[in-house]
Amino acid sequence: MASSKNYRDFVLEQLSNLKPTTKPMMGEFLIYVNGIYFGGVYDDRFLVKMTKTNEKYNLLKMLPYDNAKPMYLVENIDDKDYLENLVLDTIKGLYKL
Question: Among 13, 33, 87, 90, whose Cα sits 20 to 30 Å from the Cα of 96?
Fold first, then answer.
C-alpha cells in the first residue's frame, strides 16, 4: 500500500523546524535532514532508523516493507518537540565524523 501525500505533508509540517526534504520511492517517502536519510513514511506510518542514540525512546520495531531492516515506529507524531528531539537523536547516531 502506498503512502498518502497528506500524511507525508503532515509529518513534514511537524518537522518543519528541521527543514526536511523528501524523495519518493516506490509509493513511499524517504525523509532527509541536512542530506542525512534518517527515516520515512511507509504505508502511512512514520518510521526512523534504529540507532544507539534513539533507543531511549522505547519505540516498537517494524518493517517498512517485506525483507527490509527493522525501523522504529513513531506513533507520537502530534508533539513537534518530541519529534524534533527524536529525529536529532537519530541523526546523531547516523552521522559519522
Answer: 13
